[in-house]
Each structure stands twice: as C-alpha cells, then as structure tokens.
Design brief:
Length: about 280
C-alpha cells in the first residue's frame, strides 16, 4: 500500500468527499487530521490470529454502527434508540476499544486519550428553525479532544470517519425508527429472540470466508489464495459485487437470446456488467 496521504477535508469545506477511485486503490485517507488506513485481507487475517475475526467486526462496528444496530443494548440501558445520534453512540462505545484493536485502522492513534468537552460555537446565520439568527449567538457542542496530540473529534469529523469506513467495507447499517411504546417493545422483543438464536450458532463461523471461498472458486476471479492477502478490503468487496453483476447480466443476455425472458421492461443497463456499482448509502 502506498504511503501517499489523500486529504479530503479542509477547514473551509467540512463535507468529506470520498473518491470511489481513490477508495478502490486503498491509499490512506485523512479526515481533518485523523488518518485512516484501509486494511488488506492479509491484515484482517493477522488480526484474526491475534484477537479473532468477530473482534475485528465488533471494533469496526464502533465506528460505522448506528443506534438501530445497537438498539437492544441501548434499550436495556434505558436509552431509546430513536433519541440518540450516531455520534452520541460512538462516544459511549469508543472507550471500550483499546489501541491494539484499532491499530489496524488508525495505527498509533490512541482513542483512550480522548476526553469529552463541551465547546461553545457560533451559530450559523439562518440555522435556527429556518429563521435568521444573530451570528454572535452561541450554541454548545460535545467534542472529543486529545490534549496530548491536539486532535479533536467533533460530529462532522466522526461522520467523515464513519462514511469512509462504510464505503470501504460496503456496510451501510439500516436505520429503523419506531413510534409508540408498544411498537418499540415489540421490535426489541424480536431483536432479543434473534440475539438468543445467534448465540447458539457455531462460534467458528466467519464473515469473510464464504465470500473468499465463493470468489476463489469462481472461474472469473483473477486472484489466487496467496495473492488475495495483498488485496485491499474495498477492492475485494468490489470484486464480490462485480462477479454477482456479471453473473446476473450474463443470465439476462442468455435468457433474452433464447426468448425465455421478456426484456421489454428490463432497463438496458442491467445487461451491462461494467455498469457503476450503486451502494446503498441512504440513511
């Protein structure tokens, strides 16, 4: 992996722009002054040897998760998942992760050194309920600040980190809101039953192995097993999706030529296996 740093966030423009092309090639990515390193399949394998694959996904979820993903835990703590933001959830979870576990993504950045601070910030004109406000008025925001290294994580910085990692791993947690106590309790009870069922599943199950095995046994996959260790996670996930698109497009073409499929209502782009992959990143 190259060491060139791609800085996609400036003080003038706080919206993080993630280039899909640069993401694919896996160079380190900077949000404000925090560098994220995209792991390879080999990196995750080494992590598995030390801590287990499940622990890797648990660590990743701290950065990409949302309240819907953790609603059972939050509910048992007396917190309504509908009333907490992604950033507030991150603040509550990050202290449970140590440097050894986050090193694969952030190298020597130690999240245990961050403390919570309440900071006053100038209000943006016109931001309050759609009405013009005096720019001299101040509001408060919670930030995490590492005094030793002079690094701040506010909600915008966190969102940039989360969005990058979600894009790299192609994981976009669903968002489910609920109104009414009875509806919420029904959802929580269903989550609890699913949780109890998952606990009975074999602990040796792997998230990556079925994907790796499927790709290595597909005639169109170009990597051999040992070569796969050097492939970035984004490139690998892209290959998984691309093979699926190729198979779907090929099946449609064969069906159309044979006359067994009515193609009149099928968009032309569905026949093109080189089409852009659309990620489900809507919240």
């Amino acid at each position: 992996m190259g060491e060139e740093i791609i800085n996609m966030m400036t003080s003038e423009d706080h919206d993080v722009r993630i280039s899909s092309l640069q993401l694919y090639f896996g160079d380190p990515f900077v949000v404000d002054n925090i560098t994220i390193y995209q792991p390879t399949i080999g990196d995750i394998l080494e992590y598995d040897k030390k801590f287990g694959e499940d622990e890797f996904w648990s660590t990743l979820n701290v950065f990409i998760g949302n309240p819907t993903m953790y609603r059972l835990m939050l509910w048992d703590l007396g917190i309504d998942w509908n009333k907490i933001t992604d950033f507030q959830l991150f603040i509550s979870l990050i202290k449970t992760v140590d440097l050894d576990h986050t090193y694969i993504l952030f190298k020597d950045l130690d999240f245990s050194k961050f403390e919570l601070f309440v900071r006053k910030k100038p209000s943006v004109e016109g931001e309050s309920d759609g009405e013009t406000t005096d720019s001299s008025e101040e509001s408060e925001e919670i930030v995490m600040y590492n005094i030793e290294d002079d690094i701040e994580i506010n909600e915008k910085v966190y969102t940039g980190i989360a969005n990058y990692l979600r894009a790299a791993f192609n994981i976009y947690p669903k968002v489910e809101k609920a109104k009414g106590k009875i509806t919420k309790e029904w959802i929580i009870e269903e989550d609890r039953m699913n949780y109890e069922r998952r606990k009975k599943e074999p602990s040796s199950s792997s998230t990556l192995l079925p994907l790796i095995s499927s790709c290595l046994n597909h005639p169109g996959f170009k990597y051999k097993k040992n070569e796969l260790k050097d492939v970035g996670i984004c490139e690998f996930m892209d290959s998984v999706q691309r093979l699926q698109i190729y198979e779907q497009s090929t099946a449609l073409l064969k069906g159309s030529y044979s006359g067994f499929i009515d193609t009149s209502k099928i968009p032309n782009e569905q026949f093109n296996f080189m089409r852009e992959i659309i990620h489900d990143n809507k919240k």
